[in-house]
Amino acid sequence: DIVKPPKTKDMAARPINDSDLKALLTVIKDSNPQLYLACMFQYYLAIRPGQELRLLKVKDIDIYNYRVVVVDETAKTSRRTIDMPVELAELCNTFQIHHYHPDNYIFGQNGIPGPAPLGHNTMRNRFNKFRDDLKFPKIYKYYSMKHTGGGKLLDAGLTLEEIRDHF
User: Which of 64, 89, 125, 127 fits as disulfide partner to 142, beta carbons 3.0 to 4.6 Å?
Assistant: First the structure.
């Protein structure tokens, strides 16, 4: 008999449509490669942009075996290993991530892996600036990259159970 309170405002991130996604990623890739890499990690791996992605370290990425580990300390639920597509491994190679110290954070200061992670809202604020400059709707959030990737998996024929397990 618990009454469900009315929802006052829907703040959920929405998937980004194809044409907007292409425009957004093109601008981000050219202007902010670090943000582009972060968007690709969300899109391909469904890594949550909060502490899972922000606190990802060089040692958590195995480019040669195409795997990324989200460790217990940063995972929302528990440690998990995620298969990485070749495209993302190649992008990591382009950024020469494997040349940095294993304990460095992938998303460190100055646009490169480093000993200190970026601040909690840094990537979100950067993403929002690109979104706003392109005059895209505010329902497109930094977290939308994760939802957009999930939608593409559904379009590709994966079952809801497979997508749930991926997420």
Answer: 127
Report the pLDDT averaged over residues 152-157.
92
Measured CA to CA, the distance from residue 132 to residue 28 in angstroms comes to 12
Q: Which amino acid makes up residue 95?
A: F
Residue 145 phi, psi dihedral angles, 5° rounding:
-60, -40
Which strands form 67-70's sheet, in the order they lie side by side?
Answer: 61-62, 67-70, 80-83
Name the token pair of 7: 């929802």
Task: State phi, psi for 49 to the nearest 5 degrees.
Answer: -70, -15
Contact residues for 100 (Cβ-Cβ < 8 A; gap 6+): 58, 112, 113, 114
Are 112 and 100 in contact by the 8 Å Cβ rule? The answer is yes
SS3 129: helix
> Residue with structure tokens 């070749």?
86
**How far apart are the C-alpha atoms of 92 and 56, rounded to whole Å?**
13
pTM: 0.90
DSSP string, 84-102: --HHHHHHHHHTTGGGS-T
Share of the chain above pLDDT 70, in %: 98
Question: Are 119 and 72 in contact, with CB atoms under 8 Å apart?
Answer: no
